[in-house]
Each structure stands twice: as C-alpha cells, then as structure tokens.
C-alpha cells in the first residue's frame, strides 16, 4: 500500500519497492519499511522508518501490507518507538498473522546504507535459508526470534532439523545467547521481572 517500501523478499531484492511483487505460497520473508509523508502544509515531511523483517505464511491470492497509523511525525515516532509497530497486513481482505523483527543496523551515521548485506547477515545468523522462492530452513535461534510477538500474532515455531556435526553447535549457542539478549531487551519491565524470577528458579 502507499507509504510502504518493499526492500527484500525471501533474501532477494524486491522487483518493485512501491508496486506489486510476486511471491510463492507458503512461508515468506519480507523486508520493508515505512516511507510516508506525514504532517500538513509547511510542516509536512517524509518519515522513513528502520527496515523490519516480516514473516508471513501465504495461502491466498493477494497480500496487502499497510503501514502503522501515522498521520503526523509524532504519531509515526510513537508507532515505531516500541520496536513492534502495528503493520496492517491482510490476505484476500482478512487480517494475516505475522511475526516481525527490526533489522539490526550498523553503528554510525548511515546504519542501513547496505540493506542487502544486513539482510544476508540477519538470515545467516539465524540459519534461515530459501529454496524455490520461499523460506526453506530455520534454525533454533530463529525459533527464539519468532517467539517475540507483534500485536498481530506469534506464529508456531517451525520443526527443527537435528545436526550431527559438532562445529555448528558453537555458532548456534552463540546465536541463542544473542537472541535471548535481544528478546530480553524487547520485553516490558513486568516480563523481565517474571523472566528473572523464572531464571532463578532454574538454578
């Protein structure tokens, strides 16, 4: 929809940022951001959000993605402040469930200067691969990420494939720690308190 830029679909640059793209049925990963004029008159400006990685399961004919409600710069900033903006995603006219994660940028002045490289890194760290135009494999770390709910839904974590090699286990463990840190930072004060209590009980 107007005001949304599609950047990457299943690890590949989108055919068009601002018009229709073709996707396959099944699990799909879409990287998008909001690029929308907000405000009125002389105070009108374009608000560009950070890119977000959205995971959806397509079973219908048409998926529409609309940006969070944002009529002013203040409203836009408030919508994205939490890290879980309310994208309005529908499939054939019905609300479509999704999970999301803000794409991790670099430190410095232009954190998203090379989105393609950041998307590749995001997927590599989570063991996400693509086959036949859709999401093919998701590692344990990605399942942890999927547990971070948007206001829409948390999708069921995919079944994981066991690995017999020992070397990748170290990488996966490191990724799990990073994901747990990210999950903790996104949690509310009440959720953090409950998690710490649970963690102490496990000792």
UniProtKB/TrEMBL annotation:
Keywords: Signal. It comes from the Bacteria. The keyword Signal applies. InterPro entries: UPF0319. It holds the Pfam family DUF2057. Belongs to the UPF0319 family. PANTHER family: UPF0319 PROTEIN YCCT. This is DUF2057 domain-containing protein. It comes from Vibrio maritimus.
């Amino acid at each position: 929809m107007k005001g949304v830029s599609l950047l990457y679909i299943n690890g590949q640059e989108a055919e068009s940022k601002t018009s229709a793209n073709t996707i396959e049925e099944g699990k799909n990963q879409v990287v998008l951001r909001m690029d929308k004029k907000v405000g009125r008159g002389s105070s009108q400006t374009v608000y560009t959000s950070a890119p977000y990685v959205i995971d959806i399961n397509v079973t219908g004919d048409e998926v529409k993605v609309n940006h969070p409600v944002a009529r002013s710069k203040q409203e836009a900033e408030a919508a994205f402040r939490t890290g879980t903006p309310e994208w309005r995603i529908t499939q054939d006219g019905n609300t479509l469930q999704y999970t999301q994660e803000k794409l991790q940028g670099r430190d410095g002045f232009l954190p998203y200067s090379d989105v393609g490289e950041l998307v590749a890194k995001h997927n590599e760290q989570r063991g996400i691969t693509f086959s036949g135009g859709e999401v093919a494999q998701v590692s344990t770390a990605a399942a942890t990420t999927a547990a971070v709910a948007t206001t829409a839904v948390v999708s069921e974590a995919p079944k994981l494939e066991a690995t017999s090699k020992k070397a990748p286990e170290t990488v996966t463990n490191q990724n799990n720690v990073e994901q747990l840190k990210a999950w903790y930072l996104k949690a509310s004060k009440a959720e953090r308190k409950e998690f710490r209590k649970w963690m102490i009980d496990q000792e």
